[in-house]
Automatic annotation (TrEMBL), chain A:
Transmembrane segments: none
PANTHER family referenced in this protein's UniProt entry, alphabetically: METALLOPROTEASE, ZINC-DEPENDENT PROTEASE
GO MF, one annotated term: metal ion binding
InterPro entries: Metalloenz_LuxS/M16, MPP/UQCRC_Complex, Pept_M16_N, Peptidase_M16_C
All copies of domain Peptidase M16 C-terminal, residue ranges: 181-363
Domain Peptidase M16 N-terminal: 62-175
NCBIfam families: YfmH_fam
Organism placement in taxonomy: Bacteria, Bacillati, Bacillota, Bacilli, Bacillales
Signal peptide stretch: none
Coiled-coil stretches noted in the UniProt entry, renumbered to this chain: none
Name of the protein described by the UniProt record: Peptidase M16
UniProtKB/TrEMBL annotation, chain B:
Protein name (database record): Insulinase family protein
GO molecular function, one term: metal ion binding
Domain Peptidase M16 C-terminal: 185-360
Annotated source species: Thermoflavimicrobium daqui
InterPro entries: Metalloenz_LuxS/M16, MPP/UQCRC_Complex, Peptidase_M16_C
Length: 430, 433
């Protein structure tokens, strides 16, 4: 077991890669009541065409990764695994994103039992025709709920506007139509491809003894046998630099318009991993904050003009195959807001970010990275997401300290490009 | 296991509560002001925290204020209003990094606390009032906030069902206020109101982090005006009536929606001040607090009618609400299944397993609260408002002691009051829904 100390933030991380390929990370948190664990596969909604080297290439219906996540809670005993977690005083859950599926629990007692339950249920699928059918009604209602959610619709509308081919444009839950085609055989195919230990990461954080926890995980895994698995090949259609649609608009029963816009990364800016990818991620976020963050002149002007409220914000998402910024919020006058953005941003980009703004925002980002370490959930999820891209979460503060104003200015000029700009609007009916 | 506690110290007529723990990498400061929940002050109360965050004597422009926060390693300032029974609470919070984890020598706690005191007691003023442009802008933002309630259908249905259920009771009021009050609020009258709130309403100040109470007290004494510290403050009078239910009300709202939102409101006639409160928490947990609960198992898992089906309690007014998102055509079916669950609770159809699972998960939830500064503060403030001063260990002990008959006694008190349904525009608008 490898011990990695992070002196400045006073955290010690333990790591081991098991013989079956599973990556295990343990972060003891002294004084915490809670232990939180995530068991995550590098498999999300975008992985819809794939092949295990040497086997057949398959394409699966939209929404299947998320469907599979729901069905994992079913057990051969007929009892939902939630019942068992409850008996052991744990709160369990799962989520599916574009690139990963995570199973998790948090508890304050019975840590060993809960951890064993987590690993065992994720490693013993049980799908029947009947339980697959039953889930379609439940997920159908989950899809309906999102259809009525304007924040989700404006967000997803923007992703759809940006991408022409990449499967990130497909809703994570799929559609009522696409999930109707899912069968237990397809679920097993996806399961056996992506839930092999060599494609997964287990993260445990809390008031724990790292040696004991590692021993428990190792003996649990040693008692199970897994065929060695060849490399997983994932296929994505080529994505042009241009956005699919410049502007996407829908009407819903809302009291105020929602406006979201952003820039898609060019193919040239994608494909990085590790430190280079982290630098791109952090530099882009600093640039966006300098341009549009709550301490920027533009933000304050738009606020004073009544075009935005305090929820106006931005985010940046970067994966190996896609990347984009998302900016926006509620506005009574979306077209006025967009006109202001389209006239002000080019000037600001040309002028460049000044050193005082850069230093202040860097400080803010360091403080925010430090604050995040108060939250075990955040640590586990963020660490895993980064790790799948060969990034170390604990490098965030050191890299922030290394970034220069030139890095951020040149990143800003690379990212802000109007051919790759798209807009999504949700407007009130009438 | 013993649990750390807040140390409470009086500072004049203010109460200061400090929780010292080295486990957090930040220090969290929070100021909680109580006001009565009443139509004449509602919207002014809702507007205050937003105006107060626009500028202070030391940082008069919003931009300078925001930039100061960023300079303090991205300290987070927030202000909001919420309801606790028939009290309206204004909360300010400031979370700031602890410099011992940074390459920083300056005391961030001192800077952060000064900043927060500034926001509270020294807002930027002009002509004996708040800055007029700030007030006008914040009125517009608040108007939008009230109008956008309908955007989030889950929240909208929750608020509408409470409005209908508690018609003619203060609890029906929306925490963000009413549109009709906005035209009468101006920079001067809001400032007068601010002074009244500041100098007469009960105020609690919380601090959680790697700090000592002496240090906090010293800093506060130095930073807060003496007349503010010594101002006399009157407890908020609650005229809490929980009428007994005669007929179940049915209310249907229509909007352009794909999914129906079903909210069923009950009166529990039990509040956090009552000895039956732990049994009520157990009742709610078994009914709909968890994935093992009756609602989740029966509405979702067995009948496949919903993605979410749960219940929650309002502890100061004595209410319980059930919420679920369903296919519009399944309304009757869902209502019937939910009523069956309420009936099963009354009939004492509670297995040993359900009771044990619920005790385990509720205790876990309470213990987990110790890891989040704001949860610690909320738990303490909640027990303070209830007048019981239940500590975490008291609560855990009491939950452990709840017996099946106690839960059944709660079930006998719980009365379904209102069935609210938000549905689409389709179907016959005159039909009985």
């Amino acid at each position: 077991m490898q011990k990695i100390e992070h002196k400045q933030v006073q955290e010690t991380l333990f790591h081991e890669k098991l013989p079956n390929g599973l990556e295990v990370y343990i972060l003891p948190k002294e004084g915490f009541a809670k232990t939180y664990a995530t068991f995550t596969t590098k498999y999300g909604s975008i992985d819809n065409t794939f092949q295990v080297r040497g086997k057949e290439k398959v394409s699966v219906p939209d929404g299947i990764a998320h469907f599979l996540e729901h069905k994992m809670f079913e057990q051969e005993s007929g009892e939902d695994v939630f019942q068992q977690f409850s008996r052991q005083g744990a709160s369990a859950n799962a989520f599916t994103s574009f690139t990963k599926t995570a199973y998790l629990f948090s508890c304050t007692e019975n840590i060993a039992q809960n951890l064993t339950t987590l690993i065992d249920f994720v490693q013993s699928p049980y799908f029947t025709d009947e339980n697959v059918e039953k889930e379609k009604g439940i997920i159908g209602q989950e899809i309906r709920m999102y259809e009525d959610n304007p924040d989700w619709r404006v967000y997803f509308g923007l992703i759809e506007a940006m991408y022409q081919n990449h499967p990130v444009k497909i809703d994570i839950a799929g559609t009522v139509e696409s999930i109707s085609k899912i069968s237990k055989e397809m679920l097993y195919t996806c399961y056996h491809t992506f839930y092999h230990p060599s494609n997964m990461l287990l993260f445990v954080v809390g008031s724990i003894d790292p040696n004991q926890i590692m021993e428990l995980i190792k003996s649990n895994q040693a008692a199970k046998s897994f065929e060695p698995q060849a490399e997983i090949l994932r296929y994505f259609k080529e994505e042009p630099d241009e956005v699919a649609e410049k502007r996407k608009e829908i009407k819903l029963s809302v009291g105020i318009s929602k406006c979201m816009f952003g820039f898609k990364e060019s193919q040239q800016a994608l494909g990085k991993t590790g430190i280079e990818m982290l630098k791109q991620d952090l530099a882009t976020k600093i640039a966006l904050e300098a341009l549009l963050g709550s301490g920027s002149e533009l933000y304050q002007a738009l606020y004073d003009e009544g075009l935005i409220d305090e929820q106006f914000g931005f985010d940046y998402s970067l994966e190996q195959g896609y990347g984009h910024s998302l900016i926006g919020g509620d506005t009574p006058h979306p077209d006025k807001l967009l006109a202001r953005i389209q006239s002000e941003l080019p000037k600001l980009v040309q002028k460049g970010i000044v050193i005082e703004d850069f230093e202040r925002i860097r400080k803010k980002r360091v403080g925010s990275a430090l604050r995040s370490l108060n939250f075990p959930e955040w640590i586990a999820n963020q660490f895993t997401g980064y790790r799948f891209n060969d990034i170390d979460l604990f490098q965030v503060i050191p890299i922030l300290e290394q970034l220069t104003l030139e890095d951020v200015n040149s990143r800003m000029r690379e990212h802000i490009h109007w051919d790759r700009f798209a807009i999504s609007l949700v407007q009130p009916i009438n | 296991m013993t649990y750390s506690q807040f140390e409470t110290i009086s500072l004049g007529n203010l109460r200061v509560h400090v929780y010292s723990s080295p486990k957090f990498k930040t220090t969290t400061l929070s100021i909680l002001i109580q006001q009565r929940l009443a139509p004449d002050v509602l919207t002014k109360t809702a507007l205050l925290p937003n105006v107060m965050q626009r500028g202070t004597a030391s940082y008069p422009s919003t931009l300078s204020l925001k930039r100061k926060l960023a300079d303090l390693y991205g300290a987070i300032l927030f202000g909001d209003v919420y309801k606790r029974g028939e009290r309206h609470i204004i909360q300010f919070g400031l979370e700031i990094a602890n410099e011992q984890y940074l390459q920083e020598k300056e005391s961030l706690l001192q800077a952060g606390l000064s900043f927060l005191c500034n926001v509270l007691t020294e807002p930027q003023i002009e002509n004996n009032g708040f800055v007029e442009s700030y007030v006008n802008q914040e009125k517009t933002i608040l108007k939008q906030k009230i109008e956008s309630l309908r955007d989030d259908k889950i929240r909208y249905a929750a608020q509408r069902s409470m409005e209908e259920m508690c018609k003619n009771e203060p609890y029906a009021l929306f925490n963000h206020g009413r549109l009709e009050d906005l035209p009468n609020i101006g920079a001067q009258n809001l400032y007068t109101y601010y002074q009244e709130v500041l100098n007469t309403c009960p105020i609690d100040i919380y601090c959680v982090g790697n700090v000592s109470s002496e240090e906090i007290l010293q800093l506060l004494e130095k930073r807060l005006p003496t007349d503010f510290i010594s101002a006399s403050r009157n407890p908020i009078q609650i005229t809490s009536t929980t009428p007994s239910v005669k007929d179940v009300k049915v209310v249907v709202d229509r909007m352009d929606v794909k999914q129906g939102k079903l909210n069923m409101g009950c009166r529990t006639h039990i509040t956090a001040s009552d000895p039956e409160y732990p049994a009520l928490i157990m009742y709610n947990g078994i009914l709909g607090g968890f994935p093992h609960s009756k609602l989740f198992t029966n509405v979702r898992e067995k009948a496949s009618l919903a993605y979410y089906a749960s219940s929650s309690i309002e502890s100061h007014k004595g209410l319980l609400t059930i919420q679920s998102g369903i296919e519009i055509g399944n309304y009757e079916k869902a209502v019937a299944i939910i009523k069956e669950q309420l009936e099963a609770m009354k009939q004492g159809q509670l297995s040993e397993n359900e009771i044990n699972q619920t005790k385990a998960t509720i205790s876990n939830q309470f213990r987990e609260q110790q890891d989040r500064p704001y949860d610690l503060i909320n738990f303490h403030f909640h027990s303070l408002l209830s007048g019981t001063h239940r500590s975490l260990s008291d609560m855990l002990e009491q939950i452990k002691g709840v017996r099946k008959e106690d839960i059944q006694k709660v079930a006998e008190k719980v009365q379904l009051d209102t069935i609210y349904f938000l549905r689409d525009q389709g179907g016959d608008p005159h039909a009985k829904d």
